[in-house]
Write a structure and sequence with these properties.
Elements (H helix, E strand, L loop, with lengths): L5 H4 L4 H45 L1 H15 L12 H6 L5 H5 L14 E5 L2 E14 L17 E12 L5 E10 L4
Antiparallel strand pairs: 1-2, 2-3, 3-4
Length: 185
């Protein structure tokens, strides 16, 4: 009654081989999924670091505009530099020639080698270089942009602020902005 054909008796390990092949295929699928997840994790990590560096560099224009306004409104004494600066600006000031730069008589530096301002917070660094671009007389125009005090200005002074933000793992972003200053008379 229990007669098995002779050919089937010879294939006793076929189920084992089939099971091993299925396990091999599942292992390869699992390894591919893990490698794909690792790549995606690295991509998202790099994206996060680039965003951190961008946010650091993006704070540069706000800091630069405050420093420009302070210098042009108060005209601190070069002899007392940097003792006559507010504490928050004094803490970040790096360049002793900044007064000459902001007045347009010297522009030899950049944000990589000798920045004007340097901040470090929580391992993130920001270097800012502010350079005088030029001055434009605006007299004779029909429309004059107003400054904070609402007084028209006959001259416009332009500055370039180059911000270099760095986060961990060598991620860095550079932002270059132009600032227009309208003096109050």
């Amino acid at each position: 009654m229990n007669q098995i054909s002779p050919k089937l008796r010879e294939e006793k390990g076929m189920v084992l081989i089939t099971a091993l092949l299925i396990m091999l295929v599942l292992t390869l699928i699992g390894m591919a999924a893990i490698m794909n997840s690792t790549v995606e994790i690295n991509l998202s990590r790099n994206e996060r670091l680039q965003k951190e560096a961008f946010f650091v560099a993006d704070s540069g224009p706000a800091i630069a505009s405050r420093v420009i306004r302070y210098y042009l409104q108060n005209q601190p004494d070069p002899g007392g530099y940097p003792d006559n600066l507010p504490e928050d600006i004094k803490d970040i000031m790096m360049d002793s020639n900044f007064l000459s730069e902001i007045n347009g008589s010297l522009q030899e530096d950049n944000c990589w080698n000798s920045p004007d301002l340097h901040l470090t917070t929580q391992g993130r660094m920001l270097d800012i270089d502010i350079d005088y671009v030029g001055r434009v007389l605006t007299s004779g125009q029909n429309i004059v942009f107003l400054n904070e005090d609402g007084v028209p200005s006959p001259v416009t002074i332009y500055y370039r602020a180059h911000s270099w933000g760095r986060a961990t793992n060598n991620s860095s972003i550079e932002i270059e902005t132009f600032y227009r200053y309208l003096p109050t008379y």
